[in-house]
Structures are given as C-alpha cells and as structure tokens.
Amino acid sequence: MAVVVGRRPMRTVGTGVVHHHAGATRSGDRRPASRRKGDSGRPTGAAWVVLAPLTRQRSYGNVPQPHAILYYQQRTTKGGLLIAEATGISDTAQGSHVQLLFDGSAIFKDQMFPVCMQAFQPNGQAPISSTNKSLKPAVRANGIDVATFSTPRRLETDEIPFVVNDYRVAARNAIEAGKRHPITFFTPDILIRNILNYPNTGFDGVEIHGAHGYLIDQFLKDQVNDRSDKYGGSLENRCRFALEVVQAVTDEIGADKVGIRLSPFASYSEAADSNPEALGLYMANALNKFGILYCHMVEPRMVKLGEKFETPHSLRPIRDAFKGTFIAAGGYNKEDGNKAVSTGYTDLVAYGRLFLSNPDLPRRFEIDAPLNKYNRETFYISDPVIGYTDYPFLPSDV
C-alpha cells in the first residue's frame, strides 16, 4: 500500500539515527544509573547532553553523503547520544524535509520546502492524515514567501494497519542495515542508536517520532483528529495509533531498542490539544507496559517552532509517570539543563541549535567555555560545508 505521511511540510514521520559512543554501559535495567535503586548519583560532566534531531537538508540523490558522516563524527563524544534528522518510513512517506527509499536497506534524503505536499508523492497522491482538513497558508521563515499546502486524505480505518506495518518494516530494516553498514547513515524514519559500549557497530534501535505535527501527532491531538472511528474521539482512541506503532516496533526489534519522541504541549502545524497534560500522562503510563528504553519529551514552553513561551505547565508529572529513561528538550541552555538533571527533572537533555553550532558542546559545557553563535540562514541550505561542518572546535590545548 502506498503511504504518504503528513499533511504539509514538516509532516514527515520520523527521527533518524541516534549514535552512541564508547564509554557508557548498559544493564538489564532500562533506567539510567541515576534512577536505579541504590545509586543516587547523576551523570557526571556533560554526559547528560544529547543531540536533538535536526533537519539539515544536506543529502543528495536519496543518499547521505560523506559530509553527513563527518557532521555526526564531529559531534561524537565519549558516552554521548546523537539523534539524526527525520526520515520517512516508506517510499511514499515523504514531506518537505526528508524522504526514505527502501532497497534492501534504507536511505534518507533531505529536501527543500515544497509549496505543496502532493509534489512529493508518487502519481501526485494526496498526503495522508488523521483528517481531511487543510492547513492554512503560512508565511515562510524569510517573512516574505507564503507556503500553501495540499488537502490531505483521511486514512480509512482499514488502511491504518498497513501504515503501522510500515513502521515495523522500517524498524527491522534499520537494524538490518546497521548490521551491514556499520559506519554509514542508512536511516529509516524512526531510527536511533543508544548509548552502548561499542562504537561503529551499526544501528542499535529506533526512535518513533510522535511529535511536532507529524502523522502520529495528528492522531494524538484533538484539534486535528476529527475521526469518528476507533482512532478518534476519546483520549484512548486518539492514542491508539501511536500505541499500535509502539507495539509493532517493539515486537519486531525488542523494547530495549525503542524510544519515542512526543510534544503534547506543542501546536506545530496546527496540531494542538485541548488538554496536553492529560495527553502526556496517558501516553507515559501507556508506554510503561511496553518497557521501552526512553521517552523523549518536548518542553511545554516550546509551543511554536523555535519560540519559547512562558507557561505554567511542566514535564514533571509526565516524567514521574514514565518508568524508563526520560529525555527533555526545548530551549535549554547549560545552566537550566544542568539543573534539570541534578534535580531529577530529567535524565538527559537534548540540544538542537547549540549542538549544531558547537560540535564539541559537551566539552564546552564541562569546562564552561564560550559558545559559537549559530547562523539561522545556513540551517537548511544544501552546502555540504557552510553552516554544517565548518563550526569551529575549541583549541586542543583548552
């Protein structure tokens, strides 16, 4: 079955590779050492720093290039965790940012922003969604151009199991591709690599992207999901698709290789919810029964893309409800990230723009070194060097 995931640009379905590096250990306990009984310690140094998934649009011809390998190698740190950019889970799971093709192993490709999602689908098919409601035209980041979006097609109830299966197959391909290509970045949608002892051993797991207006988020949020079947209406029904995906992926590759990213408080691409805390708590409790490795949650203050807002909400209730490793993301600097970990608010903190512009960010945090400033104008250009691999490191003698 041909599947297109998303209603508009930024509605592809996934987060890609997470790399882990030498120096960390893992036992049968899926919680970090800081949360295991009898161990009151917290991560030392800047071991709690994670690279958040960042769209960079630097792949050509559906193939990640050597500069992508260099980009991630630059950000490799002993005990570190890197999450690569979003990719699709099938050949039709294409949005404005990334597409994924399958031919034995998966390949990701960043794309430029189109004027309409239909342009990226085979035979001009409409993108799929939980709804058939169109998005309103939106002004692009340059403040001048206006993006318009094609009308999505509401998935039929009997089509949804096929989409769930795409996630399952993508997860399997991720693991198999990692075994065959231990250093390259063949990254299906929901791909991660966890922190283990051995570098360059391939892909160790997957992260399911259920945040930021991607397909799963469209089912979760009641301001988008207007379905009347078993996937719409009640909170339980709206979470059904996400949990079916988690079930399929954990059954395929094992719960200890699975994470998920969620943003219940965000309203990216008009995907908002009337009771985000209840949504986050429901998902946290429901995820516990699968025993997945981690939950990656976006802070309530990050309601809109790239903007921070004052809010009375907190991730604390959700973090307390989830029994695995917890990753918080969204607008953190060194000080509040360190505080969040030291107070038990989270186990790890994901950084985006600061890690983009500081490939040695954990070291800079550890020794309190000054940070490079990021350049927004180079975030999404196709140049393989400028704004990608040319941010300077600290001198070796610092």
TrEMBL record:
Residues 200-370 form the NADH:flavin oxidoreductase/NADH oxidase N-terminal domain. The keyword rRNA-binding does not apply. One of its GO terms (biological process) is oxylipin biosynthetic process. InterPro entries: Aldolase_TIM, OxRdtase_FMN_N, Oye-like. Keywords: Fatty acid biosynthesis, Fatty acid metabolism, Flavoprotein, FMN, Lipid biosynthesis, Lipid metabolism, NADP, Oxidoreductase, Oxylipin biosynthesis. The keyword Glycoprotein does not apply. It comes from the Eukaryota. GO terms for molecular function: FMN binding; oxidoreductase activity. Pfam families: Oxidored_FMN. Gene3D superfamilies: Aldolase class I (3.20.20.70). SUPFAM superfamilies: FMN-linked oxidoreductases. Its cofactor is FMN. Residues 27-40 have a biased composition (Basic and acidic residues). Residues 14-44 are annotated as: Disordered. This is NADH:flavin oxidoreductase/NADH oxidase N-terminal domain-containing protein. It comes from Oryza glumipatula.
